[in-house]
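Most newcomers find our protein records easier to grasp once they have seen one. Read left to right, the backbone structure tokens trace the chain's path through space. Once this layout is familiar, the rest of the handout is easier to follow. The record below serves as our worked example for the rest of this section:


***
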Amino acid sequence: MKKMIFVLVFVFMVGVFSNSYAETRGGVILQDTAYGALTGAIIGTALLVFQEDPGDHLEYITYGAAAGAIVGAIYGVYEATALVEIDKNKNVKIAMPTIINEKKGRELTSSVNILKVHY
């Protein structure tokens, strides 16, 4: 019974908060994570049909929700990150990672900055 109440509260929260945060990058990621978790929980519940004793395998719901949340978060980050951006002056910016080559002594190293955070 506690799990059912948790699922109903979670579905209610997804419905209430999904529209209010959808305008920002964080909102897109949060919304996709929530939808992924909900979809994963539904798929985990559907997999219970194939078990002889579904009551013994209720963890499929939580595994599905966790996997769905991870996939949803990854998709949300992908969706919120634009590789091509057009600003107000119609300038096109293409976000390609820059390969940085450094020579330290006799050793040549290459690196790519994947994440850049501005404070």
